[in-house]
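Our example copied in:
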Amino acid sequence: TSAISFGIEKLHNGWTVPLGVHKIICSSPGLLVSTTVHRRSTPVKRTVRDINNNFVKQDLIIAPGSYVEILETQVHGGRVRGRIIWEEEDPEGVERGSGKNRLRRKEKKSKKKKKSLLEKRPKRKSKMFQRGRAKKKEDDGTHEDDDDDSVWEENMVKYSGWISVQWADEEDEEGNAAARLGSGSDEDAGPWTEPIPLGVYRISFGAGLPLRETPERDSAVLDKLERGRCVEVVETTVKGDRVRARCLVPPLPQEGDDQPGKKPARFQSGWISLLNALTGASGASPVPLGAYVAVAEGGCVITEGGRLDSKEKGTLNPGSCIEVVATRIEEGTVRGLIAAGGHVTLFVLNGASPNQLAAVGGTKNPDGGRMFAMPVPLGTYQVVQNGLSVTTALSMNSPVSMKLKVNACAEIAETRVEGGRVRGRLTAVGYGGVAKEVNGWMSLFEPTQRWAKIVCFKGGRPISPNQPQEQAQA
C-alpha cells in the first residue's frame, strides 16, 4: 500500500492509509463507531450493565490506546473513514455462559456410572500411590471445571462499523484544522488513528518469539526466532489481547551459500505476537521510517527497484538527507523505499556472508553488520538558533504559528525531509521550566546547517556529553 501512495496526494482516495491494525490516538473519550461510512449516521450500539446491574444499550466508543483492524477505507466528508470489526466480551453472553457451565457440570455428575458393591470395596495400596492418585484427581477436577473454547467464543460479540482515521487532505494541510473543527465537530484535530507499520522488524524480546503456523496463539510452532533476528512483516491482525503479524523470515546463512550454482534458501512464513494490545508492550521493534542520513563513505546507490542488481538511478553523497517510507529484506540487506523514488540499502543483516559484505560495501557497525544510512532519532531537541519558526504544516512555506528562542526544547515525534532539510513534528515545547503542548513542524538540520540538536532520545535516554553530535543526529 505504501509503495503506491506517492504522487497521488492531491487525489486522495484513501489508498495512502494502510489497511491492517491501527492504534487509536485521539483524545478522550475515544472514537464513535457509526453504522455507515457517513460520520453522522446511526451509531453502533453495544450492550453494557448500568449502575443497577441491568442490561442497557450505549453508543460504541473505542477508547484511546485501543487497537483496531481497518478492513476498508473510503473518503467521506473530507475524512478518510475506515471499516472495522470490534470484538469484546458480551455481558449477556457471560451470564448465559456461566449458566451453561453449571448445567454441564451437573450433567457430568449425573452421567457418572453407578458402581457395584464389589467395585465400591476399598483396595489396598501404598500411601505413596494414594497421594499420587489424589493429586491426579485434583488436577483432573480443575480441568473439568474450566470453560471450554466453545463457551468462551459464545461470550464474545463482534461489532462492525466505521471510524474516522485522518483528514483526507492531511498531506496538503495548511493549518486549517481549527477552521475545519469550528463547524461543531465532535472530534479533535486528528489524525485519529496511527497504523502499525509494515516492513522490517527486529526481534527484541529477550527469550525470542515463537513463529506459529496461523494467527491463533495455540497453533503449531514452526520455529523459534532469537533476539536480534530481522523479519519482514507483511500483514497484521488483532487476536484477543495480542496484535499478531504475518512475517517473512529470511534463512540463516549456511556454509557453502556462496558456492556458484547453489540455489538460495527460501524464506519462511509464519505468525508472531507483535505487541500486547492491553499494555502496548512489544516483542519486536520496527526499523524506523522517516528521515535518514547517508553515512557510507562511498555514498548510497539509488536503484529503481528493490533488488540489489536493479538499474541504478544515482548516488547519495555522505551526509545527504533522505526520507524512507517503507522497508523490505532483499538478499541479506534491509532496503528502504525513499519518498523521492527509488530504493537504497540501509544496512546489512547480521551474519551476512563475506561475499555479500564485499558486494555492498558500507560502514562497519558494532553489531557486525554494515550501515549505509542511519535514522534521525526522535526525542527532545534543543534550539541552537534564535527565532526558529514553527509552522502549521510540513511545508516550510506554511503559516508560522510561533518562534522559538535559543535553548528552548522541543519534543519531536516524527521526522520528514522537505527540500533536502530534515523537519520534525513537535508535540510539546519547553523554555525556562515551562512546558506546553504544541502541534507544528520545525527545521532540525540539513547537510550544511543545523537549527536544533538532540539532547535526549525518545524513552528518556540522555545524550552522552562526549558523543559527537553528528553521530547522535544519525
